[in-house]
Specification:
four-stranded antiparallel β-sheet; binds magnesium ion; binds adenosine-5'-diphosphate; six-stranded mixed β-sheet; alpha/beta; Rossmann fold; 241 residues
Length: 241
């Protein structure tokens, strides 16, 4: 579903060049739950933002469902993003003057869904995250864990095929973090592919796949895991398994 080949990203300012990603190769198959870990500044958010087409890259290629995103217009990119990708951020990114319902509804409005479809999706998403009774609350009236569950509801109401989560439990205490992790596992079991940045080794273990990034370079532990694969098997075949 996602294929990155020799993808590099350099941030240039007047004073310095930062090689945020160096020749990254990655394949993510439909239905995977992958955890991405690495030191601060190693390129995790940059990778996630590029996968979410929020940021461009300098060289290499990114194929999403077999099609390169290179050269797509902004309009085409935002359509693709809207239809296929959901985002969850560490800081929830909810609009504080909007009710829970309205927060979840906003991206659905952008997509031009009609009111009855919007309501149905919002109801379902709120049921799943267990916050239906709080639909008329404002974000500030909820705990951090509940706010993150609203953000998850907002993401899944769009019925994305890929969920990109950048340290979704980074601002939560351990109990709430566990609830959010369990919710993500449930969403993954429904078929949504998930890529999650985390600092928590326990979460990385629970995900089906653990990708590490250091200094803009990927170290994908799944390459070492498939014991049933003969050692001489080419990388592409192993990754596609
Ligand atoms: N918009 C930007 N302009 C310049 N440098 C940036 C920008 N975004 C990120 N960087 C740099 O790229 C590197 C990777 O950043 P990031 O992907 O945010 O790391 P992580 O999420 O792993 O902490 C860092 O050195 C960071 O300073
Ligand atoms: Mg980051």
């Amino acid at each position: 579903m996602i294929t990155l080949t020799n993808l590099s990203k350099i941030f240039r300012t007047e004073l310095i060049e930062t090689h945020a990603l160096r020749e990254v190769n990655l394949q993510v198959n439909e239905g995977e739950f992958a955890a991405l870990t690495g030191p601060s500044g190693s390129g995790k958010s940059t990778l996630l933002n590029i996968l979410g087409t929020l940021e461009n890259f300098d060289s290499g290629d990114y194929l999403l469902d077999g099609k390169s995103v290179k050269g797509l217009s902004d309009a085409a990119l935002s359509k693709l993003r809207n239809e296929k990708i959901g985002f969850i951020f560490q800081s929830f990114n909810l609009i504080k003057d909007f009710s829970i319902f309205d927060n979840i509804e906003l991206p659905l409005r952008y997509r031009g869904l009609k009111a009855s479809d919007r309501k149905q999706r919002i109801d379902q998403a709120l049921e799943l995250v267990g916050l239906h009774a709080r639909r008329d609350y404002l974000p500030g009236q909820l705990s951090g864990g509940q706010q993150q569950r609203v953000a998850i509801a907002r993401a899944i109401a769009g019925e994305p095929r890929i969920l990109l989560a950048d340290e979704p439990t980074g601002n939560l205490d351990s109990l709430m973090a566990r609830q959010v992790m369990e919710l993500l596992e449930q969403i993954n079991q429904r078929g949504c592919t998930i890529l999650m940045v985390t600092h928590d080794p326990e979460q990385a273990r629970r995900a089906g796949r653990h990708i590490q990034i250091v200094d803009g370079q990927l170290h994908d532990s799944t390459l070492y895991q498939p014991l049933s694969q003969p050692l001489h098997q080419p990388l592409a075949a192993v990754q596609g398994a």
